[in-house]
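User: Hey, my collaborator sent me this sequence without any context and asked if I could get a structure. I don't really work with proteins. Can you help?
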Amino acid sequence: MTPSVFEYYTPSTMVEAVNLLEKYGDEAKLLAGGQSLIPLMKMRFASISHVIDISRIEEMDYIKEDSNRLSIGALTTVDELGSSVTIKNRYMIIKEAADQIADPLVRNMGTVGGNISHGDPANDLPAVMLSLDATFMVQGKNGGKEIKAEDFFVDSLITALEPNEILYEIRVPKMVKRQGGAYIKHKKSAGDFSVAAVASNIIVDGDGKIIKVGVALTSVGPTPIKSTRAEGILAGKKLTEELAAEAARSITEESDPVSDFYGSIDYKKKVLRFIIKESLVAAYKRAKEAQ
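Assistant: No problem. I've predicted the 3D structure and written it out in structure-token form, which is a compact way to encode the shape of the chain:
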């Protein structure tokens, strides 16, 4: 099936793109890597009159780190994210998620901003950003603003972005000493969406006691889910196999999976409980080793 007829625009700056969004409103959609939008258009699940291709906006393609944060341009491809030396050396949780997204073709074309702003609860980067307390920088006709990751995902395929706004940068607090993260994904086959996945981010003190923890879940609810229980169970303690299992049981209760092609509710919760524990153990080990 082919898409319906649409007008096509190629702005070279973010300001131009915002102006086009303001002009055409709900009739317009942004195109970056096209890995989410184009399939919807081909199947005519999305009827769009104006397509704004932002892939040529160079000011939105970068990965940089300063003394406070890691900044990722929204047009950075998933492959660039996974291949970045900065990401490899200090943000293994991000690399693990990026390397498991779909297949090499999708990773070469798909963008970080697209993976996040599409609002698909099965996408991998949203949960990672939730676990890391990321902030999303947004530009609209009336200026820029920040949206915390925990406030960004509203419902399945719905985010806090207004129709005339662009997500242009993702900001992650700089990794500190004794901080580690892990992303564990369970899938039926290579390149597939997950049955369930877990992002865990842990900071420990010099004695190995957890002083901060963030856990977020993929594919087990209408949005990515950030655990509200992890901190209360784990903070101030050293992680043991027993404590990790206890936390996994409790955090699993926060999930809301549905039965589908990928498995029953019961099966997904069993998988989730196992990989939450696995993710916590891996993140804790990395945190203790990180200097």
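In plain terms: Residues 12 and 57 are 5 Å apart (CA to CA). You can pass these tokens on to your collaborator as they are.
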